[in-house]
Amino acid sequence: MITQVFSKKNRALLSELVRTDFKLRYQDSILGYLWSLLRPLFMFVILYLIFARVLKSGGGIPHFPVYLLLGIVLWNFFVEMTTQSLGSIVGRGDLIRKIHIPRWLIVFSSSIAALINLGLNLIVVLFFMTLNHVQPLDTAVLLPLIIFEVYILALGLSLFLSAAFVKFRDVIYIWEVVLQAGFYATPILYALSFIPNVTIQKILLLNPMAQAIQDARYSIITHSPLVITTWRIFNGGWYVLIPFAVVIFVLFFGLTYFRKESKYFAENI
Amino acid sequence: MASDKSSVIKVEHLNKLFKLPTEKTNSIKSAVVNFYRTKKTYNIQKALHDVSFTVEEGEFFGIVGKNGSGKSTLLKILAGIYAPTQGLVKVEGQLTPFIELGVGFNPELTGRENVYLNGALLGFSRKEMQEMYQDIVDFAELEMFMDQKLKNYSSGMQVRLAFSIAIRARSDILILDEVLAVGDIEFQQKCYDYFNELKYRGQTVVLVTHDMSAVRRFCGRALLLDKGKVVEIGDPDTIAREYEIINLRNAEKYLNKEDKDPKYHDRDGNREAEIIEVETFSPKSNKVQKTFFANEEKIGVRITFLAHQDIASPSLGFIFRNSAKATVFATNNHIKKVKTKDLKKGQKLVLECLIDNVFTNDKYTITCAIESTDFAIIYDRIEDVATFILSGHDLAHALVHPPHDFIVREGKG
After folding, report:
1. 3 state SS of A1
2. What's the pLDDT score for residue A81?
3. How far is CA A106 from CA A178, A209, B338, in A?
4. Residue B380: is it exposed, middle or buried by C-beta count within 10 angstroms (0-12/13-18/19+)?
5. Which site among A98, A103, A166 would you substitute to test the B interface, given the most B Cβ atoms closer than 10 Å to its Cβ?
6. What is the structure's pLDDT at B182?
7. Per-residue b/e over A13-37, b at no fewer than 16 CB within 10 Å?
8. Is the domain covering B7-94+171-251 a CATH 3.40.640.10 domain?
9. Count of alpha carbons within 13 angstroms of residue B389, beta-carbon side
């Protein structure tokens, strides 16, 4: 199954699709690929000025600007991957109507493009970590696993959204609203300790994005007790498994829905 | 080498339905609204109805049919683009569909980048593409333009590039759709050469086309679809003839509606005598009116005149014009040395001619006239009436194809 999925033919096509995505994205821009690095760079400057200097919303968390940046980078990856995948099937309608290529390959190629961008953003994060004298932590080895978790969550959603978008064009507007709400429901710009009610803290952390962002901050930036993670708040209880269960459910649901709908993409687009 | 020919495509009792929403339901609001409505807001269109056939290994198989007969739907099901509603579709081996040339071409990418992208869609790795890149460019004759964006190419250049890539495709079964519909004569020749090569190579090909001469030339067998049903599967000559008959029936329906009434045509003359009817007929079937003729049939022309005054020996004549307005045939009673009688007021005259069908496939009109003996006075003259269609010839690029011998012998010396 897996060998068929990643057959030579599919890999060649995938790399060509990703290449095209990247070429077209920075089409006619003078700095081109550099924008992939410049965007998080400028974002950091803005975050630093507003949240670390003016608002001082750090609540004593060490290396707060980098802490913020990492959260934003992960969240942006999630947003970029889901929104780009959402339109990917409809956007490639000309291909789907005319040639039989595995449909998931199209969603997969947008996800790879987002993943590459995440890689570039993480380089910027690393750069500011060194600049901020963040001490290297042995928990950093967990970061790839955390990114994998976010990726799987976003992939499940992407599969569902892209297939649903073929039938219902409202999906894009609904998803925008969900992302807006998600941005504030996830402790990205604020420290979770700002919320006085512990129950609400717990509920917010059941969201896999919140859990993943907090875990990522814990694993590479600081072990300061102010960084609230699921492991800490639930004291190792079985509740910690809920975010992972959500991720697995979303992937399974997305895959099933996509497989069911993909047969009719060509006629419905 | 496979000793026995085995079927590589097997289609059994294939049905395909399309739900066509009367109002397009792709917003959630309408889906919700419609959910509570008992009345369905879509029409069901049956695109394919109980289609069964097989294609054998190494066969050049044609699928023909009018627009909307379901042939493209059938092709898309074979290619795995559409899912069948009912029935069985079995395809053995790898299949490359060219539903269209240049699939995935992006106008914002350069020619070079598009070659690689299109190649990947046809199943080539980047390395394989690098190896054949130069051949592709040479064949397309576009060396100078490869680093320009595709949007700056002419449509002819785009087709050339797409075709050069397409012919590299190697898979067990090739599916070609309407490839012949684009391009000029020179390009069509390239297509034909490619088809010949495929045939010679023993490649399994499914060709979907309107072009009956291509079907006759290349296909071993063909399938005729009409309104989603298989009319016949058989040798290309039979199929091509059937196809033309179906086409002509339709054309005839359409012709019968228009140009019955001489009022709508350019008309000249003092009307001392009048042309009251112009029609074509079949000499075989009891001289019934007929507006399409197959290649072996004679064309009957009947013109009825009515004199409003006494007229001395009128001159009668008519010409055929083809769709390009070229006169391909002309005759009159002087040329044929037929002397006409004097006409009394109120008397009718009928002219009947039987003409050997030496013309080629086209739409023709009759222009006819009744004039005084010396052609000095035009009594009545009507331009381009009684349209009729000729079909069934293999060639369409010459005006006439008179009976002739064709002898090839060895020269001396």
Report:
1. coil
2. 95
3. 23, 24, 77
4. buried
5. A98
6. 63
7. bbbbbbbbbbbeeeeeeeeeeeebb
8. no
9. 15
Q: pLDDT of B138-172, one tens digit each?
A: 888 888 899 999 989 888 888 888 888 888 888 88
∠ CA B5-B6-B8 to the nearest 5 degrees? Answer: 125
What superfamily would CATH give domain B262-390? abc- transporter (atp binding component) like domain (2.70.50.60)
| Neighboring chain A residues of B18 at a CB cutoff of 8 Å | 267
CA distance B387 to B361: 13
Name the residue ranges covered by the structural domains of chain B. 7-94+171-251, 262-390
> CA B208 from chain center: how many Å?
12
pLDDT value at B26 more than 70: no
Q: What ipTM was predicted for this assembly? A: 0.80
Residue B35 host element (H or E):
helix B28-36
**A61 Cβ contact list (under 8 Å, min separation 6):** A67, A191, A222, A224, A226, A227
**Is A172 in the B-facing interface, judged by CB distances under 8 Å?**
no
> How many other CB atoms are there within 10 angstroms of residue A68's CB atom?
25
pLDDT digit string, tens, across residues A78-125: 999 999 999 999 998 888 888 888 889 999 999 998 999 899 899 989
**Nearest CA of chain A to the CA of B200: how many Å?**
26
Q: How far apart are CA A73 and CA A96, in angstroms?
A: 32
Helix pair angle (A143-167, A208-220), 10° resolution: 150
Q: Write the CA distances from A41 to A73, A152, A191, B355, integer angstroms.
A: 11, 26, 22, 85
Q: Distance between CA atoms of A162 and A166, rounded to whole angstroms?
A: 7
Pairwise CA distance, residues B105 & B77, whole Å? 23
Optimal mutation site among A14, A17, A19, A20, interface B, most CBs of chain B within 10 A: A20
Whether A199 has its CB under 8 Å from any CB of chain B: the answer is no
Is the model more confident about A9 or about B262? A9
A30 touches chain B (CB under 8 A): no
Q: Where are the alpha helices (DSSP H) in B219-266?
A: 236-257
Residue B220: strand pairing partners: none
| Cβ within 8 Å, pair B103-A15 | no
B120 Cβ under 8 Å from any chain A Cβ: yes
Alpha-carbon span B218 to A21, nearest angstrom: 40
**CA-derived radius of gyration, chain A:** 20
CA atoms within 13 A on the CB side of B264: 7
Chain centroid to CA B83: how far? Answer: 28
**CB-side neighbour CA atoms (13 Å) of A9:** 14
- Give yes or no for a contact between A209 and A149, defined as CB atoms under 8 angstroms apart: no
Do the chains contact at A99 and B28, CB–CB below 8 Å?
no
pLDDT value for B396: 62
Check if B133 contacts A (Cβ < 8 Å). Answer: no
Q: Is the pLDDT of residue B1 over 50?
A: no
Query: How far apart, in whole angstroms, are the C-alpha atoms of residue B348 and residue B205?
Result: 60
Bridge partners, residue B165, by sequence: none
DSSP B81-127: SS--SEEEEEE-S-EEEESSTTTT--TTSBHHHHHHHHHHHTT--HH
Largest Cα separation within chain A, whole Å, is: 58
CA distance A215 to A211: 6
